[in-house]
User: What shape does this take?
Amino acid sequence: PVCAQQNMVPNGDFEDYTTCPTAFSQTMNCTGWYSYHGGTSDYFNACASSVNVGVPTNYFGSQYAAHGNAYTGCYTWGGSSVNYKEYVSRVITAMTPGCAYDVSMSITLANISGNASDDIGVYFFKNGPATLSSPSSCLSVTPQISYASYGAITDKYNWTRVSASFVADSAYDHIVIGGFKDINNISVTPVSGGSNIFAYYYFDSIVVRLIKIRFTYPDTLLCAGDTFSLPYTVDTSFHGGTGNQLRVQLSNA
Assistant: This one.
């Protein structure tokens, strides 16, 4: 397939906005982005008139943007008996089925958080509701991307860059970011210094990019049972351990 190479996520650094945020729950002020369901994610920008949603200082802590002057934030865990979640979403450039994509972002735990969660991931979809008005609980979907291998990200002072890859099996054109484990499956880690029990994360610099494989192979006659070698290079590393597989398709003229 012919695969696009640029970042598939417009405004992935949250810098473009229609109006500076003035209060909580204004993710829609960031151009193209919105809260996916009844959970109300937040938009933070240095231009904010309210200290609650400013950068670097806001209600949840103090953090400069990983890039530029803005980022977004979500609850991923609200307590052992509360299945409350928040997500951010937007339309992206449609993927090409059969192409491999690297999905990366910068994440940091907000200072106010008393716990960190291990359930941050990314869900892509094509045919589905662009947004949900309710509920505000964990989405009952399986994300294509899970950052569970990084464990519960507990760093409140530095941005952690996470990355994972997958092969698209559909022309996905929407992205949803947040926590995807319900209260029965999530693992949380207590973190010192937090004044609240919940886990709240900031997200910045969202990038979805093609993993391009390059090779040159001469026109060659092969017979059944023959073996051959195909040297190749990969623009971006495959992630997730040693289980990655490459498939070669042969054809005649």
